[in-house]
Design brief:
- The structure holds 2 protein chains of 2 kinds.
- The longest helix of chain A is centred in the N-terminal third of the chain and has 12 residues.
- Chain A has 6 helices and 11 strands.
- Helices cover 25% and strands 24% of the residues of chain A.
- By secondary structure, chain A is an alpha/beta fold.
- In chain A, helix 1 crosses helix 6.
- Chain A has a single domain, classed as Rossmann fold (3-Layer(aba) Sandwich), CATH 3.40.50.
- Chain B is of the alpha+beta class.
- Chain B is elongated and about 50 Å long.
- The chains are: A alpha/beta, B alpha+beta.
- At the A-B interface, loops of A face helix 1 and helix 2 of B.
């Protein structure tokens, strides 16, 4: 699997994601700077990492979503290349219009930083094939703006089409219907606030995130 | 030519910052505040002849997230 990790000024989980991907795929991802207008030739997976791109100026993810590299990411996504946005990456994907809805300030106003229990809602997605539907997993969260909101019609559509990939088991940040992660209508773009790349090796305190990358690797390599 | 863009959360969208400000005002003893909504003001210094639709385009493409926010443009003709 030839993967790329996008790096914005202010990204801080890019290395974690790269290490996780290398462990699972055996191959170092290309680190792609936000000013690059193109992704490396033949990339078959794109990761948008967590962090505080552009200092969260204007809105979290707003500036990053308009950076040159995101046009290339949108092109790749439209060709069906799997794209995952984690935490700030999820915010970037919603701001770029690649996923519906918006991530607002946590309802409790506090930065939330702890492991949270999630339910895998759909094990049929490109990203969740190694999980069972309804399975409980533990991923860390670390965010200030993770409160997922969309209008009722959008929420109903996401639910009806099985596009809610992960749901918080306990109230975490005020997200509508406790949504933690969603996929786009084509199923190749996933955004989620919790950090699977921080639950890859036992030293992290858990390895529930590893299967997300393993499932993706298996699908892409097949 | 200058213009001001006021960005506000759509009605019905929860505003945790507005809520916190509201609580703080009450804590300071200001009674009679029914609700607080927080927004943004962006001042633009523009080339003469910039059209309304250009400014609206800026709002839609970057300044506001129209999923959750409304915007209002105020031109300051003599500024």
């Amino acid at each position: 699997m030839k993967s790329a990790v996008i790096v914005f000024p202010g990204s801080n989980c890019d290395r974690d994601l790269a290490v996780g991907l290398e462990q699972v795929t055996g191959r170092k991802p290309a680190m792609v700077w936000h000013k690059d207008a193109e992704l490396p030739e033949g990339v078959d997976f794109v990761g948008i990492p967590g962090g505080f791109s552009y200092g969260d100026y204007l809105r979290s993810g707003a500036m990053a979503a308009r950076s040159p590299v995101m046009r290339a990411v949108a092109d790749a996504a439209s060709r069906g290349v799997p794209v995952i946005g984690i935490c700030n990456g999820f915010q970037v994907l919603t701001e770029a219009g690649l996923l519906p809805g918006a991530l607002m300030r946590n309802a409790g106003l506090s930065f939330v930083c702890r492991p949270v229990r999630l339910r895998v809602e759909n094990s049929q997605s490109l990203f969740t094939s190694q999980y069972d539907s309804g399975e409980e997993v533990l991923f860390p969260v670390a965010h200030h703006d993770g409160n997922y909101q969309a209008d009722e019609a959008t929420l109903d559509r996401l639910e009806g089409e099985g596009r809610v990939a992960f749901r918080y088991l306990d109230q975490c940040n005020g997200s509508a219907r406790n949504i933690a992660g969603i996929v786009n209508d084509a199923g190749n773009v996933l955004g989620l606030m919790p950090h699977p790349e921080r639950a890859v090796e036992p030293a992290h305190g858990g390895t529930d995130g590893r299967r997300l990358f393993e499932g993706l690797f298996e699908t892409v390599s097949a | 030519m200058k213009a001001r863009v006021f960005i506000t959360l759509k009605s019905g969208v929860l505003d945790p910052q507005g809520k916190a400000i509201h609580h703080a005002l009450e804590g300071l003893g200001f009674s009679g505040v029914n609700d607080v909504r927080a927004g943004k003001l962006i001042e633009l210094d523009l080339a003469d002849g910039t059209s309304d639709s250009d400014i609206e385009d800026m709002c839609r493409k970057l300044l506001a997230n129209t999923v959750i926010e409304n915007f209002r443009i105020e031109r300051l003709e003599n500024a």
